[in-house]
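Technical annex B. To support the medicinal chemistry partners, we prepared a structural model of the target in complex with zinc ion, based solely on the information shown next.
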Amino acid sequence: MRSILIQYEDSFRGDLLLVTPNHPLPHVTDIQGLVPAIPGQSKILLQAKAAESLQQVFRHLHCDTQFAAVSGYRTQDEQQHIWEDAIAEKGLPFARQFVAIPGHSEHQTGLAIDLAEQKSEIDFICPDFPRTGIFQQFREIAPRYGWIERYLRGKESVTGIAEEPWHFRYVGVPHAEILSKKGMVLEEYIRF
Ligand SMILES: [Zn+2]
């Protein structure tokens, strides 16, 4: 009984894990048990429960061919490279706005994914994930399966991150639906 409780508490805390500019990852270790976020797009990985629920959203929409997984789990080294490349290519103000400092990225949890409309050219840092059609349907349905759009317009002062229409975070059920219905971001929900 005790071990079941501990497992439950661990997974509960895990799904709601807060990683922000002010909250680094509690420990930077490579996560085990990662699987492809979208079958056939094998380089983009997520924790298995997050990947499974993402597939459920796509099954609900009867579609995954219009979606591209741009970035999922990142190691500390990968986040470091992305951070340095963004500074080199676009400057520090841009990097600060759209790339998390290494150790502070949700991508390092294996519970976050950047998605794009599938097309020939996809911007790695700011991919296009429209607010129309099947992409907007994705946003509306995703909370039923534990996923939220993480960085909302109007919540920049709370999240410390610019609006990112492409970045989704797995927080699990029922948290995602409650967050979505209340129009809250994760920082507010944890305090709620
Ligand atoms: Zn992202």
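Notes passed to the chemistry partners:
The radius of gyration is 16 Å.
The longest helix spans residues 76-90.
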